[in-house]
Design brief:
It is built from 5 helices and no strands. The N and C termini lie far apart (84 Å).
C-alpha cells in the first residue's frame, strides 16, 4: 500500500480541490477589492463635494490643484468597482466550468483558467494601485518639503531633564 499523496488522490479529485481553492481565492479577492473600492470611491466623492482646507504656503498648490488628483482617482475607483462586480458575476456563472477544467488532465484548459485568473486579479490590483497613488498625491500639498525648517523652532524645554528635575527640587 502506497502512502504517496498523488496515488491516493485521483486527478479528478485533486483537480476539483484545486479548482475550488482557486474559486474561493477569487471570490475572497473580489470581496476585498469591492470593499476597498467602495471605501475609496466614497472618500474621494465626499472630498470632491466638500470644501478642502487651504494647502501650506507652497508655490503652485491651491485648492483647485488639490481637487485634480481627486478627480483623476475617482474614475479608477469606479472602474475597479465595475470590473470587480463584473468579475464576481462571471465567477458565479462559470464556477462549475472552472472547477471542471481543473479536473481534466489536459494542461491547455488548466492553463487558460490560470491565465484568466491572473489577468483578472492583475487588472484589479493595478486599478487599485493607480487609484491609491493618484489620491496619495494630495498629501504632497499638505506636507513641507524635505529639509525645510519651521518658522520658529519647537520648544523642547518642557521635555528636558533639567526642567523635570528643577520642578522636583
Amino acid at each position: 500500500m502506497s502512502n504517496n499523496f498523488s496515488d491516493t488522490l485521483s486527478i479528478d479529485s485533486l483537480g476539483r480541490v484545486l479548482g475550488e481553492r482557486l474559486a474561493k481565492f477569487l471570490d475572497n479577492s473580489f470581496t476585498t477589492a469591492f470593499a476597498i473600492s467602495t471605501f475609496g470611491a466614497s472618500l474621494c466623492f465626499t472630498a470632491l463635494l466638500t470644501d478642502t482646507p487651504d494647502p501650506l504656503n507652497r508655490p503652485g498648490s491651491s485648492v483647485r490643484h488639490i481637487r485634480r488628483p481627486f478627480a483623476v482617482s475617482l474614475p479608477f475607483w469606479v472602474l475597479d468597482l465595475a470590473f470587480t462586480s463584473f468579475s464576481a458575476d462571471a465567477l458565479s456563472l462559470w464556477q462549475p466550468k472552472l472547477i471542471q477544467n481543473f479536473c481534466t488532465e489536459h494542461n491547455q484548459e488548466r492553463t487558460e483558467v490560470m491565465w484568466y485568473a491572473t489577468e483578472v486579479s492583475g487588472t484589479l490590483f493595478t486599478l487599485l494601485v493607480i487609484a491609491f497613488l493618484t489620491q496619495g498625491l494630495i498629501i504632497l500639498a499638505y506636507i513641507r518639503p524635505v529639509g525645510e525648517l519651521q518658522s520658529s523652532p519647537p520648544d523642547f524645554s518642557a521635555y528636558s531633564c533639567r526642567a523635570q528635575w528643577a520642578g522636583r527640587l
